[in-house]
Amino acid sequence: MTEIPQQMRHIRASGPGGPEVLSLDSMAVPAPGPGEILIRVAAAGVNRPDVLQRAGSYPPPPGASPVLGLEAAGTVAALGEGVTQWAVGDRVTALTPGGAYAEYVTAPASNALPVPDGMDMVTAAAVPETFFTVWTNVFQRGRLQPGEWFLVHGGSSGIGSTAIQLARQFGATVVTTAGSDGKCAYCLDLGAHHAINYRTEDWAAKVRELTDKRGVDVILDMVGGDYIAQNIRSLAVEGRLVNIAFLQGSKAEIDFTPVMIRRLTLTGSTLRPRTPEQKAAIAAELRERVWPLLSAGTVKVHLHSRFPLADAAEAHRLMETSAHMGKIVLTVDETA
Ligand SMILES: NC(=O)c1ccc[n+]([C@@H]2O[C@H](COP(=O)([O-])OP(=O)(O)OC[C@H]3O[C@@H](n4cnc5c(N)ncnc54)[C@H](OP(=O)(O)O)[C@@H]3O)[C@@H](O)[C@H]2O)c1
């Protein structure tokens, strides 16, 4: 067992701003509270919400670490009071309330899962945020059923690449939109049945054509703006629209008549402010329904690139170009 130091390296944000506000610094290693574990971080995933938090538009919820980072994989270094399901040295991947851009991070023990069989730590670090988000929004809120039509916008994003694979695995017909032909080819490789380049094609018209004017049953959207009205028009009777972000704005002028006529459900959620108990309930379903697929390699995590922790600013610059396909990861200590 490795001794836990007093101080650790982490990424400090000197204030809201561009990627240049991020730099390596030193701070005290956090202590796990009751029900928490301390993880010696091998790698941490980079997610769009980190970019929004750094820019000042997505503040951490009360009580969360101000350090960026919503997911990490590593080994359990210490147990808080009352933790019985993990032992020091266990390999875990965890949803963290913040703080993963660091050598050590705490997380509720119930929000950690074992690293799937055969998966390396760097890949495992890219699992929790997108899998928790997709599971709770597509399958719990969106109630996607086998045989239904599913549309996910931004199919090449971390979220999109997870949603395509899980929806396909669970028996849906998957349609996605993405911003280039290269991204569309990537989405088809992941298992999408149809990928629409929204820059060269009217995606809503294509969805109407593909579904014979019926529309899709569930839409997962992070774009918002003009898409809100088009999403509503693209839903079938009893369709469900789930918004997880509004990259192009959250305001729109909407004709709500189709919501009534076609009995639509408009919903959405954010994962981060949900309680550890709510996240634990999602973790339990993932462990039962999705972990076997990750262990078998039927569902994969696609890493676009990895950066050393010290280069977090570079990782954010890449994410802001939106040139990536799949996940971006920070490597912290691959021997952890
Ligand atoms: N609600 C939640 O609980 C929750 C949790 C995690 C993430 N999210 C949200 O889900 C979204 C995806 O997250 P991620 O980490 O997977 O991000 P990501 O990999 O950076 O993907 C974002 C993608 O969205 C597409 N996009 C469309 N319109 C855009 C715009 N106006 N600005 C920027 N990108 C645009 C881009 O691809 P194209 O080239 O195809 O346009 C881009 O690659 C983010 O908005 C994030 O905030 C929500």
UniProtKB/TrEMBL annotation:
Keywords: NADP, Oxidoreductase. InterPro entries: ADH-like_C, ADH-like_N, ER, GroES-like_sf, NAD(P)-bd_dom_sf, Quinone_OxRdtase_PIG3. Coiled coil: none annotated. The keyword Transport does not apply. Residues 1-27 are annotated as: Disordered. Residues 17-330 form the Enoyl reductase (ER) domain. CDD domains: p53_inducible_oxidoreductase (cd05276). NCBIfam families: quinone_pig3. This is NAD(P)H-quinone oxidoreductase. It comes from Azospirillum oleiclasticum.
